[in-house]
Amino acid sequence: MVKPTHLLLFCTVIFLMSSCYKLRGHYGGPQSFATQSRLIKPSDVALPAWYSIEMVATGLTYPTGMTFDEQGTPYVTESGYAYGEVWLPPRLLKINADGSTTQVAAGDKNGPWTGAVYHNGFFYVSEGGELEGGRILRIAKDGKTTVLVEGLPSMGDHHTDAPIVGQDGYLYFGQGTATNSGVVGPDNYNYGWLKRYPSFHDIPCKDIELAGQNFTSDNPLTEAKGDKAITGAYLPFGTPSQPNQVIKGAVPCSGAVFRVPLQGGPLELVAWGLRNPFGIAFSPENKLYVTDNGYDTRGSRPGYGSGDVLWAIEPGQWYGWPDYSGGQPMNTEDYETPDKDPKFLLAKHPNSPPKPVAVLGVHSSSNGLDFSSNSQFGFQGEAFIAQFGDMAPEVGRIYGPVGYKVVRVNTNTGEITDFAVNKGKTNGPASEMKHGGLERPIAVKFNPSGTALYVVDFGVMPMTEQGPAPKQQTGVLWKITKTTAK
Amino acid sequence: MNKQSLLQINLTLVIWCMGVLLLQSCGSARRSEPIIGPLALQSQQLENGRQVFMLNCQKCHPAGEAGLGPPINNVPLPGAALRFRVRSRAFALGIGRMPSFKEHEISDEQLDDLVKYMKALRRHKTKPVASAKRLFPFLA
């Protein structure tokens, strides 16, 4: 007789092995950054009724953000650096009416440039700073560049993020953390930076007291076989922590939102306890919001099931990293992996983290953010978010592609609704679906009149067995408009 | 009932399970507004259910499609099974699992709303007639 448990197990195996339920694995062949052709077909993108999409520019290499000057001319940042350890000069490009580009400025190998904002004759560009640390650059239209902020802790997993100008005359921007969840580990070696900067680690914005959690991992920095390292939170790789050890806070720090006067001046902390606040925007009511990438299932302290988050930013608040996810404590079975339970790293928490506005797809990489402010476009007051798409299986195993689209969020209810998605039986990037739609949307920006939503599409980036393989000259700038009044 | 009969019943059950899982899992789970159109929620209970879904389910099953977890729009579980699934924790060969939601996280009343919403979302798909018309335009 077949036991019910065996029956259940059998069905589960069939369920998982079925082609329709297989876990997402590596794809894209051997790792290569070479240019490849990309089909562009706006009709492969599905939008709500009365909206249409068109291609504005193509052939961009790793575009990450955009802005408009006083004439409404679009400009795009190309990152230069990209995951997979590809190093090119980051650039600020003007998008001409015919879709061609004109270079305004270029950097050295200190990308990624993650975004720009134009204000009163200058572009303010976030320089990610993978090699030399993050900076905020002020670039005139003739390309003359000065440094507004430097020395930001950006040589790790995450970088200095896109800027925005507030009505108060300050430039606001996010800063990502060095690690996934506070502990430097072999995953950071795989990213490339631990070998370059073996003493780099996360920095708290204010004094914190550690619980004394330590993590034993392989030591990729030595040749010795079986060599292990013990590492504590907020400490260099191979340095254990002690219970009640105090780590001094400092500014600049990791995982925070900062502001700085547009004319330059001291860096001010706005909020902290974030992981990677990539997208930043003021709502029509002048409230500051950020998108924040959730924890990955990787490294010495993996977490499971951590969604990306849309936060409303309250000055002075701590938002929970590295012990909370979307306002919920991580030391619960909800976030544990098969072999690890992410216990609290901090002995005391600065405050109880706020509730998120919305929790977006796990591993969706919800990045660029902007608000609709024009009734002519519709969805007035809602947040639009570009979802870059998952980097599975490096960040964790998933059942189906997550992200690769633009969603809108009602900030009053937290309701998330797809806005621009690829057509097809399942979700996914155009290159996998063998059509000409969206690949990896990374930023969204309304034009100054609010009548058109521009979508910056990073381009083709498969996850190969050797790591991410971003393809040069596959980036696209899209434009979405409402064609008929509903 | 003899051993032989029980074996036959179990085998039938296995085949039925396989059939349901394979057939249903291969049906599209897409209910995305740009593709299918907006889901009109006709009652406050459905509105409430959507709120519960957004807070607890959306991050792993975006709009009921596959994500961290498998798609749920194309699995025809009855209400009781959905309730059991939400309340119970499940591992699947150590590679994925869904947390259980206790009553302090999702109350019984909210669970009723959620199940109602999930069923409405499941039903919100391209009508077979419309599909047939696409395949066989002469039917129009």
Automatic annotation (TrEMBL), chain B:
The Cytochrome c domain, residue ranges: 44-122
Report whether Transcription regulation shows up as a keyword of the record: no
Keyword field: Heme, Iron, Metal-binding
Sorted alphabetically, which InterPro entries does this protein's record hold? Answer: Cyt_c-like_dom (IPR009056), Cyt_c-like_dom_sf (IPR036909)
Signal peptide position in this chain? none
Source domain of life is Bacteria
Descriptive protein name: C-type cytochrome
Instruction: Write down the species.
Output: Rufibacter roseus
